[in-house]
Design goal:
Helix content: 10-25%
Mean pLDDT: 79
Number of strands: 0
Strand content: under 5%
Number of helices: 2
Structural class: mainly alpha
Radius of gyration: 17 Å
Order of helices and strands: HH
Distance between the termini: 23 Å
């Protein structure tokens, strides 16, 4: 595994922590384009609907199983 290209997000326990716009090499990394609000929990259905609207080839989102995929990618070491 290589070295991380991103610094950990800084968080002081009070103020919001913002994503870094650049990686450690100075390449553009992420940018906030539109404010979508604040949520008490992840608005998964809203996210899936947005992905299906803008990324139409991703039709398998409706039948995806995040927990199963996580188990496959991170098998129990015991």
């Amino acid at each position: 595994m290589g070295f991380p290209l991103f610094k950990p997000l800084e968080f002081d326990g009070v103020n919001d922590s913002l994503f870094q716009p650049f990686d450690l090499l100075g390449n553009a990394h992420m940018e906030y384009i539109r404010y979508r609000g604040e949520f008490a929990d992840v608005p998964i259905e809203r996210i899936k609907n947005t992905f299906q609207k803008y990324y139409t080839p991703m039709t398998d989102l409706a039948v995806s199983d995040f927990d199963k995929e996580a188990e496959i990618e991170n098998p129990d070491p015991s």
